Amino acid sequence: MTQRLTNLAIGLIPVILALLFTTLILLIVGAPPGEAYRNIVQGALESPDKWASVVTATVPLLLCSAGLLITFAAGLWNIGVEGQIVAGALLTTWLALNLTLPSILFIPLLLMAGLVGGALWGLLVGWLKVYGGVHEIFGGVGLNFIAIVLTNYLIFGPWKPAGRATMSGTEPFPAEAWLPRLGNLAVYPIAVILALVAIALVYLALRGTTWGLKLKAIGNNQRSAFLMGIPTHQYMMGAFLLCGALAGLAGSIQAIGVRQRLIPGISGGYGFLSLLVVLLAGYRPLWVIPIALFFAAVGVGSPRLELNMQLDSALGGTLQGLVVLFVLLAQGVKKRDA
Amino acid sequence: MNAVLLIRTLASVVRGATPLVFAGIGETITEKAGVINLSLDGTILLSAMTAFAVAYTTDSVILGFLAAMAVGALMALIVAFGSITLRQDQVAIGFVLTLLGAELSSFLGNPFVRLKGPSVPHLPIPYLADVPVIGPIFFNHNLVVYLGYALIILSWLYIFKTQPGLKLQGIGERPEAAFARGSNVNLMRYVYTAVGGALVGFAGASYSLSIKLGWSHRHTAGNGWIALAIVIFGGWHPLRVAFGAYLFGGLKSLGSIFQRVAPGIPSQFFNGAPFALMIVALLLVSSGWLDRLLIRLPTRVRRVIHDSLLGAPPGGLGRVFVKE
Asked: Which of residues 145-164 of A touch B (CB under 8 A)?
């Protein structure tokens, strides 16, 4: 018991350091830290509406994290996850703007389109890596920027709302395409269920299947996995496909749920944040859920800093980054002492 | 296109590529020592913001550059400490710092957005600037651009022609052997990572104080990744890295010209072009296609083309050296 408590206490040190550092930054810009933290907490938790926003922001983090658990298991740095969200949203938007079907058919079709769009964008990174020798970080980063540029082109070009193109995005999708809410709250039960199912499936697949074992073998040592007879190329392509599909699903949900249209920053940085979530979780699927909730809460709460204190909401992202940095460093200290 | 416009364009290529020269060669030095500092995109943002903020408050461009170099070195030292001393994943630490640098630059830079501040003064070099064609292209800029030329030549001389430079290659190429010959591998890696980081910080300052004046949110976003790709494209060789920097800088200048000449092409195309080129350039040097193409040529020609286009990463790149 005391052992567990000590471990917990040690585990909290990096978080405390991150908070201290953030406090220092606030003091440097001359802002009262207590008030800043209170604003973030209130902005995230003060009303059922805020709770709903936190849950909804958790969904893309969980979906992308589920995908990244797969690519990380195979030893791959899928930074391209951000662009894969966008690609899913793009294919979804294309259908949503050009078709009208009853919701019961339309919504599943649009979500499938997200899966396919993301998977294709993910496969592209995989292809560049496996057959072109381009490290997945650079293939991914390049394709992220290209996806953003493509989105802007479509919003200001072919998909611009009648007459005038604006930063506010395309025309709203027809109501049949909207993901149903929970009463008045901006929570989308289908999305929440899909996200939790994704994490559960990835947890089971990595833990208890030969597919998961082989994937991890590749992650540990690609060469020996290959010599053991594992078709490493197919497995790596498969990992990119699955991660891309899950990210694309997140993009689809952003488009037909949260925004009900395509906007320029549709991916919302959730892909990059999910990389942080998975790093912080130490690649453990079940840890991803609480950490994603925490990140979502910080993300939902920090815009309040702009409203009430004229501070930039990037403080939230700074805090998230610092927590991950100090946790990584603390793990190193622990390993060194052991 | 008339001659005056062409010369003006080439001059803007040379000027615009300068930050990429500093960042690319800085990262080359770091990677030559065997360390990957992936944080470039965040480091350049944070140092560009710092440079502008410091120069604005103190009204001193020099202090701005110094502060930016300190920020760059500090970010690099975190990578070094995390990976060399604490043996954590180099890529993970670098990636976290990429995001952290961007967020911090947005938060701390908020009060400085779109202010007008000091900048590096224009300084044509006497006599040289008057030489036809060459003068206006190369010698009608400011000190930062000239320092870029010096860095290209000096880094090449240092790495390939001096004793400490050979040692630098050794600790990145075969750290065990370098250690056996008496190099303090990890200390040298710390030093070169910090030096490389300071140059990356200089690159950041050269954006906000010379090339893309001032500060705005995500002012330089994307350029850090381009610089990292240029190091690979340039085969970890300062001259080729510099060539890559001018290539990418040129693309940007060409974009703004084409936009004037052919307004029909959507402007987004030019924003995406550097990243498409980044992927294509890496495919060219990494996929082995070039080698397969070259095989048809006579051996001598093949070797010349191969050696001038392709280069291998340092053997110990990204691998932590542990004393046995």
From this structure: 145-146, 149-150, 152-153, 156-157
The answer to whether B136 touches B7, Cβ cutoff 8 Å, is yes
Residue B1 — pLDDT band, cuts 50, 70, 90? low
Closest to A126 (Cα-Cα) out of A236, A214, A272: A236
C-alpha span between A44 and A39 (Å, rounded) = 8
A129: nearest Cα among A116, A142, A147? A142
Mention every residue, 6+ apart, whose C-beta is less than 8 A from residue B104.
Answer: A25, A314, A318, A321, B46
Chain A residues touching residue B80 (CB < 8 angstroms): none
Nearest Cα neighbor of B178 from B77, B84, B30, B316 is B316
Interface mutation vs chain B, best among A72, A77, A135, A138, most B CBs within 10 Å: A138
The alpha carbon of residue A132 is apart from the nearest alpha carbon of chain B, in Å, by: 4
DSSP label of B313:
P
Q: How many whole angstroms separate alpha carbon A183 and alpha carbon A180?
A: 9
Please tell me the distance in Å from A329's CA to the nearest CA on chain B. 6
List, for residues B168-177, the tens digit of each pLDDT value.
999 999 999 9
Q: Where are the domains of chain A?
A: 32-310
CATH of region A32-310, choose from 1.20.120, 3.40.1350, 1.10.150, 1.10.3470: 1.10.3470
Predicted confidence at residue A191, as pLDDT, reads 97
